[in-house]
Design brief:
Layout (H helix, E strand, L loop, with lengths): L13 H22 L4 H13 L2 E2 H8 L3 H14 L2 E5 L7 E5 L1 H9 L3 H9 L3 H18 L2
Antiparallel strand pairs: 1-3, 2-3
Helix pairs in contact: 2-5
């Protein structure tokens, strides 16, 4: 087998850095999420619904970049747990709307400190945090399909 010195090593792949950082953030959040019987994707749904109010399942999928085959079973479990409510739109029965329940709102508020925990642990200044967030948003907008 021959070696090719033109190949980018794993440590220099931005995708790998983002992947490992995302996993580290999720591990940081696990204690608080497990305490409230939430998964990370469920937490993201609660955050979105808390901010956006009643929205379609299609929109929550777009907000979280999750396919319906991933989203639907998770939302069903969340509804069974009492975190969200799904209902058909009165204007168009093909559209399923999603709302956060009072219980879901309470749990969302109980884990509201997670972003601050991450900021505190990051070691970044306010300016660095702002720049990182802005650049990641720009990267996502430029590469999304």
């Amino acid at each position: 087998m021959t070696s090719n010195n033109n190949l980018t090593p794993l440590s220099e792949h931005l995708c790998f850095s983002l992947y490992t950082t995302s996993r580290a953030i999720q591990r940081l959040y696990i204690p608080a999420l497990e305490k409230h019987h939430l998964t990370y994707p469920q937490y993201l749904v609660l955050v979105s619904l808390y901010d956006l109010g009643k929205i379609s399942i299609k929109r929550i999928g777009k907000e979280l970049d999750l396919a319906s085959n991933t989203l639907t079973p998770m939302l069903k479990r969340m509804e069974e747990y009492g975190l969200v409510k799904r209902e058909r739109s009165k204007d168009d029965e093909r559209i399923v709307l999603l709302t956060i329940t009072n219980f879901g709102r309470t749990l969302r508020e109980k884990v509201s400190d997670l972003p601050q925990i991450l900021i505190n642990k990051s070691g970044l200044s306010d300016g660095e945090w702002h720049d990182l967030t802005r650049l990641l948003e720009k990267l996502y907008q430029n590469i999304q399909l």
